[in-house]
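Researcher: Let's do a round of design. I'm pasting the structure tokens now; please hold your answer until I've finished.
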């Protein structure tokens, strides 16, 4: 680990203020919040800003949860981000992704045009920082403008998060 989770005895008013209104009081401790949030608490003001954006993508996005999780899992796979992968496999299953679809995400394969386009968008953004016209046309046939915007920002946000997790050395949370 390059950046360790903030120990419980250092969770002060700045941490409380950073997390207030974002996560319930009972989860505002390093054990319940998990290693990622506890690591981000090393920089409370950055963490608050990032988490507000991230929580919009998770809970306020116009993108259906299934498609969001498909995109995030592809990002996590390409970034070889075990922490992000583990968290979002569970969330993906809750959103309706089957084990076969999740295995396909790892291979870069999907069974329909929209899922294929989501995977292609992730791959193209990671490789070229742009979505090809062909992929955009397919996505546009299925998603509205705001959904497209949420998709691109989801891919970018989770790409940046994977970079931070991998660079900081955030370890996966223990199974509970």
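Researcher: That's everything. Go ahead.
Model: Designed sequence:
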């Amino acid at each position: 680990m390059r950046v360790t989770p903030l120990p419980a005895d250092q969770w002060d008013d700045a941490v409380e203020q950073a997390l207030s209104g974002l996560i319930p009081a009972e989860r505002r401790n390093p054990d319940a919040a998990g290693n990622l949030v506890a690591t981000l608490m090393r920089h409370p003001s950055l963490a608050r800003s990032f988490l507000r954006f991230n929580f919009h993508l998770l809970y306020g996005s116009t993108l259906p949860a299934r498609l969001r999780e498909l995109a995030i899992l592809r990002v996590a796979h390409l970034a070889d981000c075990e922490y992000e992968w583990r968290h979002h496999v569970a969330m993906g299953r809750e959103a309706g992704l089957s084990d076969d679809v999740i295995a396909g995400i790892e291979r870069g394969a999907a069974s329909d045009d929209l899922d294929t386009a989501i995977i292609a968008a992730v791959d193209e953004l990671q490789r070229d920082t742009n979505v090809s016209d062909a992929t955009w046309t397919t996505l546009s046939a299925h998603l509205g403008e705001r959904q497209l915007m949420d998709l691109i920002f989801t891919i970018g946000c989770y790409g940046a998060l994977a970079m931070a997790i991998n660079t900081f050395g955030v370890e996966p949370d223990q199974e509970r």
